[in-house]
């Protein structure tokens, strides 16, 4: 789709959207929360982190599929104009950790139905499973916590005429297909004059034929927050000014406070922050990383190691769906060598472990916690940098017995992408501005000011 058609589509979508409140804050539900359908009781912290490592591997694969695919999402702009449309295809896997609760529809008593959707900063469209998945001969549903959306009973459901089909094909063979429609989305309001914020005419996919390779997917659909025209943040651009933020707390807290996805005027900036430009070569949130550092020392890594020929996207993708960070193999090796030099200075304290690709060290338990654990820095074009504290660089696993283990939360990528994962975003507030194409970030105590 050329730029003129994209701009035209964006203007059409914005003209459809009106809102009763300009303030919006949504709670982010992590997978280990009791509110999540993915919650497994009695999991240890170590078991939870192992699951997130596997999810991260799946996530990187899905982003790689999405970027490398030659098939682009083609929202049926022509259906709005009454012309023939093509069926869009995206190859990826929605493995984001965070969920949001979304109220969809307007029923006879004025109520709506609540659904838990994956908050996906890499997804292009919003979709959920609709009742047709079990009513139509060609329909198929996967298991989810809530009832499937009864679009035929919703007074605010508006299908496109003529109908506008969509198809999502994911990297692991999972898929969802159905029809685009408009619907009212409802969220809890932070505005004193109303308990709810209603967003009429949100364009979403009503899923009819849905298959997932993982039998325990259980989430009702996807809540896109990318820079694509059909994402939620793009559709409410007038009300949110195209701005949203999040601030992740440490995953090892015993009783973690809630985390929030904030929009527009509900966002406050950190006391000290940096603003950098987003790359515009894709709908993902990528920034121009130029170097890396360890313990504040810049490593002067050759650009050919940061971005070898097989790297698909020239930049660092800031992603909420991957727990672990990923670097090209050459850059990763330089960082690891510097980290090993650091630990070699503390030979009497640390013992290196043989755990394959992971860089891990053990030591005798004590009250030190993260003492003598190194930090990592990401350097960006223009001189800006992101300092990742030791708690975000290494995960601390306190095993039974006398030893505790620290493992680096960065892995070498085999999927041609550099990614800043959620673990390394801890205690940093990120503010995304899709209108100005900027990313603002600064250190923050997310447990208090998320």
UniProtKB/TrEMBL annotation:
Stored PROSITE patterns: PEPTIDASE_A1
InterPro entries referenced in this protein's UniProt entry, alphabetically: Pepsin-like_plant, PEPTIDASE_A1, Peptidase_aspartic_dom_sf, Plant_Aspart_Prot_A1, TAXi_C, TAXi_N
Pfam families recorded: TAXi_C, TAXi_N
Single biological process term from Gene Ontology: proteolysis
GO cellular component term of the entry, any: extracellular region
Keywords, sorted A to Z: Aspartyl protease, Glycoprotein, Hydrolase, Protease
PANTHER family attached to this UniProt entry: ASPARTIC PROTEINASE NEPENTHESIN-1-LIKE, OS07G0603500 PROTEIN-RELATED
Family label: Belongs to the peptidase A1 family.
Listed name of the protein: Peptidase A1 domain-containing protein
Originating organism: Lupinus luteus
